[in-house]
Automatic annotation (TrEMBL):
UniProt name for this protein: Uncharacterized protein
Length: 260
């Protein structure tokens, strides 16, 4: 930007040209702090960045051509929303973690060493991923967004800078229709008695659109015989995999999914 010809009366400070930026003060502090991070504070292996920092890296890194900041942001987002089902661990896929969150012994729904995100960040992440072409994470962010109640989906969220993030009408429609589709992914053709009871527990989970929830821990804690446990576990795993493979279609996204 400094190589562009400047008018004679251009604003200067101590002889240097002044460039007016449209970015917020908070975003510039995050961007410049990372840009001149000589001590590797931001990118150290033990430093967990908040989402609002990573968002600034992606937006300003793209805008000002600082590719390594852009790539760092993408890498951290993809670590929370990976393309492999087994690596996609959060309170909406891991029943043990979900139980801890429900009991209050754990508050972090998205345990990740590199990036700290929360439910209220999903709206901003959808907008960010759509704007910057991060199609690989969109099905998973939509899945997480579908766990919100209607009021939260309509109201959106306000971040620590006071910025209001809200889904567009198109995205809101995708989430609502996708959530309804997830809730319809039920199979009642299982046997009665204890296995049927276990089925009902699984259906209760699915009413909250948590079709990717791993249920092996629930199965192993029941009094079912070993054959039934194995059969149910295998069937649940197959259904879980099918739900994963259909996420792109469920949310009507024109993206390659699942990734090979």
């Amino acid at each position: 930007m400094f190589t562009m010809p400047q008018p004679e009366d251009a604003e200067k400070w101590e002889g240097c040209p002044v460039v007016q930026l449209s970015d917020t003060k908070q975003d510039l502090v995050r961007f410049l702090s990372a840009l001149f991070d000589l001590g590797s504070t931001y990118f150290g292996s033990n430093h967990r960045l908040p989402f609002i920092d990573v968002s600034a890296f992606l937006r300003l890194g793209t805008k000002y051509g600082v590719d390594y900041l852009r790539q760092e942001a993408i890498k951290r987002l993809e670590s929370v929303f990976p393309p492999q089902l087994q690596a996609f661990r959060n309170a909406y896929t891991d029943v043990a973690l979900a139980l801890k969150v429900h009991a209050g012994s754990e508050t972090d729904k998205f345990p990740n060493p590199g990036l700290k995100v929360a439910d209220q960040d999903m709206f901003a992440i959808i907008n960010l991923a759509s704007t910057f072409g991060l199609s690989a994470i969109l099905p998973l962010v939509y899945y997480c967004c579908a766990q919100h109640d209607d009021d939260a989906l309509v109201d959106g969220s306000v971040d620590e800078d006071g910025v209001h993030h809200q889904l567009s009408c198109v995205d809101l429609r995708r989430v609502l229709r996708g959530r309804a589709s997830l809730q319809d992914l039920r199979d009642r053709s299982l046997c009665s008695t204890k296995l049927g009871s276990l089925r009902d527990r699984r259906l209760k989970v699915m009413r909250f659109a948590k079709c990717l929830m791993e249920v092996e821990a629930v199965v192993s804690s029941t009094s079912l015989c070993s054959s039934c446990k194995q059969a149910y576990g295998e069937t649940a795993g197959i259904v879980r995999g099918e739900a994963w493979n259909r996420l792109g279609d469920i949310f009507a996204l024109e993206v390659e999914w699942p990734l090979s």
